[in-house]
Amino acid sequence: MGQQTFLGLDEEGLSPEQADILIQPVPYDATTSFQPGTRFGPEALLQASTQVELWDEELQWEPFSRIHCVTLPAISPNHKGPEWMLRDIEEQLRPYHQQGKWILAIGGEHSIAVPLVKGVIENHPDSAVVVFDAHGDLRDTWEGTAYSHACTVRRIVELGRPVFHLGLRSLSREEEEFIKGHPLIRVYTSREIREGDGLKRFQQDLSRLPQQELYLSLDLDCLDPSLFPGTGTPEPGGMDWDDLLMGLKIIARTRRLCGADLCELSPLPGSRLSEFVAAKAAFKLLSYVFYFSREEASYGRT
Predict the structure, then answer these.
(1) Measured CA angle at 211 (ends 99, 21), to 5 deg
(2) 3-state SS assignment for residue 192
(3) Which residues neighbour 101 within 8 Å (Cβ) at sequence distance 6 or greater?
(4) What are the pLDDT digits (tens) for 209-224?
(5) CATH of residue 175
(6) 30: pLDDT confidence band, cut at 50, 70 and 90?
(7) Closest by alpha carbon to 263, among 92, 53, 117?
(8) Contact 264/221 with Cβ under 8 angstroms?
(9) Separation CA 213–CA 101 (nearest Å)
(10) pLDDT tens, 117-127?
């Protein structure tokens, strides 16, 4: 039996070159600080995705009847260290980035986002980055490495692109000061999204952005742990499901998304809630992206 495919789709006879979307599992879990297990995330998500209905009742369409998807073999962990692992991801995906392929990477810990952002920026140099994350992830180093999951957003900011950070609710004093002193970072806290005008302000800021293209890094711990308990560092007071969907719709309607990662699923024994939420989030993300751009491109093969 072959590897599990995203949504259980029949990919037989379809090559990566023919696909509209490449799903890249990255079962990596080396720098998790609190609760390990994200290396099991990609497989758990793919298995749960077979229970996601292919009809999007909100948008009234069946995206994967028109969008062709290929699930790639997982990128194996490199035990030499975090820097080596991120280099492997960058090198293995470079040919697909150069071809302009739309890649959804499934982690794995959040550090895998850094080489993916690099790959998109190399081929879309005027793009910006949207991050959903409960944590600042702005530490310069953490536990002896600059490539920890706790340093992910810091490494992305250093690439010199605008960064929009949604769902933030946990950070150090140093990270707070870094944000205040850095003009490229715009933050929409979880509290502002749940109780105020955070998403409205995000939409306004995004509409004024001169860059037309975006990369999305979705750390699922942005969600409240009552909805998504299976993550390495759960934080109370998170976004709810409707907040997440509205944020994704704003992105898909406002700018062109060129790729994404979905990280930090750490499956819990005796519960399948988190992996199903993750699988549904991946489905809705792709449905939104291709629904709102369907008039500009055809996804059928000739």
Answers:
(1) 30
(2) helix
(3) 16, 19, 22
(4) 998 899 999 999 999 9
(5) 3.40.800.10
(6) low
(7) 117
(8) yes
(9) 14
(10) 999 999 999 99
